Amino acid sequence: MSAAAANDAYDRLTACFGRRGTINEAAAVLGWDAATMMPPGGAVARGEQLGVLAGLAHAAITEDEMPDDLAAAEAGIDQLDAWDAANLRLMRHAHTRAAVLPGALVEAQARANSTCEKIWREARRTGDFALVREALDEVISLVREQADGLAGALGLSPYDALMDGYQRGIGVADVGPIFAAYETFLRDALPRAEALQNTRPAPIRPAGPFPAATQEALCRRMSGRAGLEAEHSRLDRSAHPFCGGTPTDVRITTRYDESDFSQSLMGVMHETGHALYERGLPPGFARQPVGEAAGMAAHESQSLIIEMQACRSEPYLAAMASELAASFGPDAAYTGPNLARLLRRVGRGFIRVDADEMTYPAHVILRFRLEQALVSGDLAVADLPGAWNEGMGSLLGVTPPTDTQGCLQDIHWYDGAVGYFPSYTLGAMAAAQLMAAARRALPDIDVALGQADLAPLVGWLRSHVHAQASRYGFNDLLRAATGKPLDPADFTAHLTARYLT
Amino acid sequence: MSAAAANDAYDRLTACFGRRGTINEAAAVLGWDAATMMPPGGAVARGEQLGVLAGLAHAAITEDEMPDDLAAAEAGIDQLDAWDAANLRLMRHAHTRAAVLPGALVEAQARANSTCEKIWREARRTGDFALVREALDEVISLVREQADGLAGALGLSPYDALMDGYQRGIGVADVGPIFAAYETFLRDALPRAEALQNTRPAPIRPAGPFPAATQEALCRRMSGRAGLEAEHSRLDRSAHPFCGGTPTDVRITTRYDESDFSQSLMGVMHETGHALYERGLPPGFARQPVGEAAGMAAHESQSLIIEMQACRSEPYLAAMASELAASFGPDAAYTGPNLARLLRRVGRGFIRVDADEMTYPAHVILRFRLEQALVSGDLAVADLPGAWNEGMGSLLGVTPPTDTQGCLQDIHWYDGAVGYFPSYTLGAMAAAQLMAAARRALPDIDVALGQADLAPLVGWLRSHVHAQASRYGFNDLLRAATGKPLDPADFTAHLTARYLT
User: Fold this and answer.
1) pLDDT-derived band of residue B1, with 50, 70 and 90 as boundaries?
2) Measured distance CA(A14)–CA(A85) in Å, rounded
3) Which range of residues forms the domain containing residue A259?
4) Considering CB atoms only, which of A22, A245, A247 is closest to B52?
5) What 3-state class would DSSP assign to A320?
6) Number of domain units in chain A
7) Is residue A89 in some structural domain?
8) Does the predicted model carry a pTM greater than 0.90?
């Protein structure tokens, strides 16, 4: 195999992956549109459009020539620089994942997920798990087939093969011990944090109301000051906040509650963190595997370092107090210390997305354990509600009064997404670790935060995280940025400092 | 060839064309987004997304198996019903058009059009034709190559082959005599209409201002009463009004001038006509060639029958006067007769899109003649401004002071769209012919129009035009709906009744 032939093969691969990336960009904009702009009558056609695009993206990297091109390029990998070599390894990985699953299974999953997700909406509304049990059974049974197929091709356990789809290279062996240790930490820390919280004044809730238009203007201003440029972004409304679009056209959404400013503002800062990551990916590798964000846990670390680490820090909250007064008029509630009491409150709730940063991992640990049991077959779908409630009792000492507040609350499983949940907590832990490193590198960071200025932090993230894209795996990315792989000690130290002192 | 094999071949063809249709739907939504929602920084990536989708749509109907499948299906065409047989003929036509052009030419055109269009924006702004001459030369030279290629495959003249791309089956032999006769009509009618207009009171302009939000609410209400359902449509803002999206999710746009209500309102009714056509296409043939609108002239007939025939009729204008007063407050200008004087005013202007319905065809005739000469080579691009101004002098007796008001005003040629312009006037003529037939079928139509109720007219259009989709060609569609092929006498009779009596 000549070097020239290896080069040609690599060039053909980059063209195929570039086409896939471009198709995925189109799908991302259509997905955003479906959640923000599309009239309801367009839903059926949109589903078909996204289905065809998914098929085309899949076809782009499973062409008949691809195995030969991969082998030819790999024979010349020593001639590639570090970025291109990493890209080639990711191409192999993506091809393996894409090529191993039979088309019939992929289609059956798309159908089953779509059916189940629709029934789930009704089941969640009525709290009737029995309604969706059969559909979820079908989804989980197909997920098991998918997991078995991937496991064989990747040399992983079935559940690890699913996790790998969300955060490449991270599995139960990495996460299990970390979560077990966190459970131990939480059993001690949560009662102490609650006791300490109870010794302090109750937070004053600002009177409001908070007109949606004023909230939106404030969100735009704060997001802009965090570095998100209007030239390359949008902020819109949707039922569930998300960050979508593409790196040069990133689109975040939120919803406005006129009795509470904090949901939209903190939500927008969270999505801004995701958006800044996309904006900071290296344009030279746009649409190539190595140019993508490093995974869902890495992505969540970027939203949480903005929302939880920076925007809930004391200096930032003091700056936010002035911004709130300027937007909504003066209120005794708008002081840094009061905002800290309001926005950094621990408590035992039923709902993951409403949880504080200390109890949030308990919600994730529950799901992590249950989904492993669902995939292995140790837990039958019919037994999910009971197992859920038991787990909540054991982890947080509370029992959801209805399945709507229990095992029906999250869309993930009902839409076929199994193995995703750990990313939330891995991201929270990585955010604390990155923040600790950023603080060491930027001694004046609190001065900037005190002016609601995220530029120093975001600049550090740009070079240490965003610009690295998928050059490294999750732990190597952290090692390059912070000197060590994921170390939950920074997260527990952060929680200890914020909630136990 | 067995009937079963022919059936199988036809099924494979419908699958390929369905995939193309779905890809085109995705592209339509992305095109809408680019004009309404996209931040400027997304433009480069969007161009690449649309380019890849165009390539995939092209590939879907030029697969290697398609010629064999077409031949096999055609061998069994007698077994197909009328709709499927028409669909198969249109598949052959679309395949011929798509397959004959070399990929290198298609790409060269995409590049040249995009380059020229960008320069044209600057040239139009500055009135400097010389700036864009070279780029337009390249565009026209490639259009000639395209026309020659299509002409050979379709057995048409090069210019007819271009026209066929916008309104299948209609060429110079159809349009030339009609336009020549219209020129003769206009030479007599326009001075008489002007003289008559001058004997009548000048229209009173309502004082305004017309807040954009109030205009938008009015536009939504009137469009809704015309039959466009919110469940399946959107109304947004864009620099240039258009109708985009897909049949179950149709998206119209307008712009608001706070000193003039009529641009947005009449524009929205125009786009509503286009939208109603898309909404009325038969769902059973969605994404198939036979299920598409019958061409650009047919499409324009549907916008103009709403905007010009129905909404500028005396009974509708009387109803509109009440709506305007309800929206903007009372004003002496809001009477049916005054609105008629205001919105049905003839005059000799430079700008096509601002022209009244009597002089509009002169703008089209000018372009029709000039673009034929450009394609044949009888007219050099360098000589376009002079020929333009000479033509305007001859047709309307006016000379544009600058090329911005002359040959630089329309994007079409600079974007490679040659052969499109005749559709505007064919559509206007077809609208008059369809309205005459609808009046014969619906004797009480003026009662409904007097209540701003377009349901009877739209109902008639639904069955006679919309639901017919591309089952017929342009003239056969008119023949089935009105008893005769395109007959410009209905249009001149309409103009005579409205402007000369």
Assistant:
1) low
2) 12
3) 212-344+432-490
4) A22
5) helix
6) 2
7) yes
8) yes
